[in-house]
TrEMBL record:
Protein name: DNA repair protein RecN
A single GO cellular-component term on record: bacterial nucleoid
Species for this entry: Desulfomonile tiedjei
Top-level taxonomic group: Bacteria
Family the entry assigns: Belongs to the RecN family.
InterPro entries on file: DNA_recomb/repair_RecN (IPR004604), P-loop_NTPase (IPR027417), RecF/RecN/SMC_N (IPR003395)
Molecular functions (GO terms): ATP binding; ATP hydrolysis activity
Length: 574
């Protein structure tokens, strides 16, 4: 379908209706289909044809147009792209997602389409507008329900039975609520387990952590302490040399005859004389005087240094011990002094963290109990609702079966005993369908005793009930008549015709008893065209229906008895 595809107006077929329905299906280059258009009408539509004629290809194409999963190798051999288009008539007042470009107040035509490339990629369209696959699927599921030919296998799997009960009882929201409560419960379990593991790990390390904290606390470490001590150690180690050199320098400057200051004092006397003789030389005398004063300060400082430079072997020993301790701690913990202080703070915080984690464990235990109790409260209420629903479902199925040639059938939903129930995301229930097909027979699990025909009718009964409750405008039954025939087939056809009074029904069938009751009959055939297999579908007129029904019986339409039988079926009140 192009960006706008075939517009709704160009696909239109038939008069407008006050019921939502599928009006047209158009397929190009899908499987063995070259080009085909199939028109559907209000009421009961049937598709018939020989086995392998391609009837299910049409249903599969419709499923694809409604957003279904794409199978492999779906594009016709030699083609680049397959196209499927559907036309729905939508009366006013039908709610659709806001993203759909259709005024619900006035209704109109809705075209759902899909283009699938030979690489398996697809594009989805609604009324020619490119949309997300999820929107196409959402709209498709709103308009159509498809019940496939293999769905009766669901009845053979007891794990599926509880879902059927929940759908029948409109319990899905409660089921989801229980699922969320179950997830909360399990998450609470995980959180508690993680906290307990953390607490256990902290406790296992507590003794070692306490020892390290004590070791670092006793050390009373100060940042850069090692640098200060190293300088002091170096100073103490050179105390004798400092004293000797300081005295020697002092005496050279000041403390003996002929010292530098003595010589400078004599020179200053000379400058005093010169300055008195020539005032211009006075600045020289002042400069020398300043130098003498500064040298005197240096000399006195050197004397003080010499007097204070005392050797202290005990202090030197203490410094060495302290430095050894600091070096040992740094090597042990692979950190500098600042890092050791940070380690001590971190370990102290971890010690405090044990108490916090222990408190969190207690909170988590309470939260777990609340989550568990919430789950079981919700699951218990859901379980009670399921048991009420199961009784209603049993009565409804028995009523349906009585109209499907199983007048004595008894149906019930059995639940496992509460003490054997295992909590799960769907609750504490485990359900299984049981059947007593004939008077005097005990109830037995459906999966063990039901025949193919019984399974088909039970599934049809369940689907008919689901259709009544869900109310999808168009309902498709793809060969749901497996294993039945005769009067039973007529009963099934009558039930399908009754569904068609309220909703549009499309039914793929091999049974003439069902096809005879249709309002609109479509024949599907394979043919050869230019050396390739192709699919054709044609709406049958009155004579065409008689011919097709005769083929389905395996008789000649020219036989008066066959014709009489067919006409009687076609005129049968529904």
């Amino acid at each position: 379908m192009p960006a706008r595809g075939n517009s709704p107006s160009t696909m239109a077929a038939g008069a407008a209706t006050d019921r939502t329905m599928l009006r047209l299906l158009k397929i190009s280059n899908l499987a063995i289909v070259d080009e085909i258009e199939v028109e559907f009408k209000e009421g009961f539509n049937v598709l018939t044809g020989e086995t392998g004629a391609g009837k299910s290809i049409l249903i599969g194409a419709l499923d694809l147009a409604l957003g279904g999963r794409i199978p492999t190798d779906v594009v016709r051999t030699g083609e680049a792209e397959a196209r499927i288009e559907t036309l729905f008539e939508i009366p006013p007042g039908i709610p659709l997602p806001e993203a759909v470009d259709l005024d619900s107040s006035s209704g109109g035509e809705l075209v759902l389409a899909r283009r699938i490339s030979d690489t398996g990629k697809s594009k989805c369209f609604i009324n020619g507008n490119l949309v997300a696959p999820s929107l196409l699927k959402q709209v498709g599921w709103t308009l159509v329900s498809i019940f496939g030919q293999h769905e009766h296998h669901v009845l053979m799997n007891p794990e599926e039975h509880l879902e059927i009960v929940d759908r029948f009882g409109a319990l899905w929201d409660r089921r989801l609520e229980v699922g969320r409560a179950y997830a909360d419960w399990k998450n609470a379990e995980k959180q508690l387990a993680a906290l307990k593991q953390t607490l256990e790990s902290l406790k296992e390390q507590a003794q070692e952590r306490s020892a390290v904290i004590k070791e670092l606390a006793d050390a009373q470490i100060k940042v850069h302490e090692d640098e200060t001590l190293a300088k002091e150690k170096e100073k103490l180690s050179k105390a004798v040399q400092i004293r000797e050199k300081s005295y020697e320098a002092y005496h050279s400057l000041y403390g003996r005859s002929g010292s530098i200051l003595a010589e400078l004092s004599e020179i200053r006397k000379m400058l005093d004389y010169l300055a008195s003789a020539d005032p211009d030389l006075a600045p020289l005398r002042e400069s020398l005087s300043d130098a003498i004063y500064r040298i005197e300060d240096v000399a006195f400082e050197l004397r003080s240094t010499a007097e204070n430079a005392t050797s202290d072997p005990h202090r030197l020993e203490l410094i060495e011990e302290r430095l050894n301790l600091l070096r040992r701690l740094q090597k042990k913990h692979k950190r500098d002094l600042a890092g050791l202080l940070e380690l001590k703070d971190a370990l102290e915080q971890e010690s405090e963290h044990i108490e916090n984690v222990a408190a969190e464990v207690k909170k988590a235990e309470k939260a777990l109990e609340l989550a568990r109790q919430s789950y079981f409260d919700l699951a218990s209420r859901l379980s009670a609702a399921r048991k009420d629903t199961a009784e209603a479902l049993s009565r409804a199925v028995e009523k349906e079966l009585s109209e499907l040639a199983m007048p004595h059938a008894k149906f019930k939903v059995s639940f496992k005993a509460a003490e054997t129930a295992k909590p799960s995301a769907v609750g504490v229930d485990s359900a299984e369908f049981h059947l007593s097909a004939n008077p005097g027979e005990q109830f037995r699990p459906l999966a063990r005793i039901a025949s193919g025909g019984e399974l088909s009718r039970i599934m049809l009964a369940l689907k008919a009930l689901e259709v009544d409750r869900k109310g999808a405008p168009t309902v498709i039954f793809d060969e749901v008549d497996a294993g039945i025939g005769g009067f039973t087939a007529l009963a099934v056809g009558t039930r399908l015709a009754r569904v068609a009074k309220k909703q549009q029904v499309l039914c793929v069938t091999h049974l003439h008893q069902i096809a005879a009751l249709a309002d609109h009959h479509i024949s599907v055939k394979k043919s050869l065209h230019k050396g390739r297999t192709a699919l054709a579908a044609a709406a049958l007129d009155h004579q065409g229906r008689i011919d097709e029904l005769a083929r389905m019986i395996g008789a000649s339409p020219d036989s008066p008895d066959v014709r009489s039988h067919i006409l009687a079926l076609m005129k049968r009140p529904q």
